[in-house]
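Continuing the series of single-chain predictions for the mutant panel. This is the parent chain; the variants come on the following pages.
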Amino acid sequence: GILKVSRQFLQDSTFPAEKFIISKLAERIGDKQNDYFTVGTGSSQPQGIVAGAASGVALATGHATAIAAGADTAAKAADLLSGLNGLVHAVGYRYRTPGKAGFMMHDTTLKAIKGYTDSTGRGLWQPSLAAGQPDTLCGWPVYVNNDMAEIGASAKVILFGNFSYFYIRSVGTVAVDRLVERYAEYLLIGFNGYQRVDSKVMDTNAIKYMACSAS
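Parent structure:
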């Protein structure tokens, strides 16, 4: 929406208020774009990566809530590892390209998974030892995206796949219109930020999701 700012504020401010406003508009647009790029329906908005992904693995009743509860046990760890491996192998081998394939999930989902170990006592999640490189889950890079659904009934909680098959089209950069006359009688100036973008999963075989059961 249009952000309306008083002329008095812009005139009296002791710091570069207009520059600050524009930077915050850009942040707001970026946040909304990430939301659309993640869960957008593709109808009158970009298609999000979750909407474009295909079904990979469904967690059985009670499985997801047990994982979310933490408390590592051998049985739950084995179930989780089986589910993650099933999701990886739901994606065809030719798509599992090192450096391009990986997991994506909400931070709370990753938090729940961090406490689990395999049968040898090795953590399923491993922190990166190289600056600028992602942490790994079952040997694959894991990326946090808080526009992904958290663990819950019927939620698509984890993606795995080759993310290079998810295309984003951006037309130009973020633009901001300064609306001087529109609210002049109220001594307000409007700022309207926007950018043209679109997105789509180009091959549904390349990206699959793990979904929780309905109950």
